[in-house]
TrEMBL record:
Chain segments annotated as transmembrane: 15-46, 58-79, 187-207
Protein name as annotated: Cysteine ABC transporter permease
SUPFAM superfamilies linked to this entry: MetI-like
CDD domains with a match to the protein in the record: TM_PBP2 (cd06261)
Species this chain originates from: Pseudaminobacter soli
Amino acid sequence: MPHWLQLMLDSFGPLLWAAVAFTAPLTLLSFAFGLTVGLITALVRLFGPAPLAAIARFYVWIIRGTPLLVQLFLIFYGLPNVGIVLDAFPAALIGFTLNVGAYSSEIVRAAIGSVPKGQWEAAYSIGMSWSQAMRRTILPQAARVAVPPLSNTFISLVKDTSLAAAITVPELFQAAQRIVATTYEPLILYIQAALIYLALSSILSALQVRLERRLGRYGGFIEARA
């Protein structure tokens, strides 16, 4: 068996374990928390009082205007200077959550803004409150618009988690780095890590296409009934 193939077979288990144990949880938790932050931020910017809306805009401006890697370094290496010490995984989770929250807030804000004002008026005309109209009428329609870009954000997040290796999170890419340090075969190991990321992204992209098709059929059904 060729040396490179044997090396890839031997390293596949540790790399896959790192992906399952760290990359996947970090991605899922960051996206879930980030989407929650994004929804709240979008609602504050659209409907909140001016001071809170200004704070939300400032948060989005800061996060979108600085590199994700710098944000991770500030949280993990910078906060200890002011007495806030975080382990690597929580620091990465906070960093990715804030980053996803800022970008997803713009997606959600645009999606809510795309819903015609007549939908608000129709909801109010049948006695719905603001919260009921938002929950039952506006958000379901906005979700159709938001799902494709949010899916792209999720796929990008899978790849961005490799940056967590820079703050010592033992995820997929750092697992590859550790094996490289003992085998001195960076080309083979980094290609293998890239292939695993590629496989994960390809699976998620296929699921995204299926989800968009289902939403498209659902949207067509709603429009036909209307």
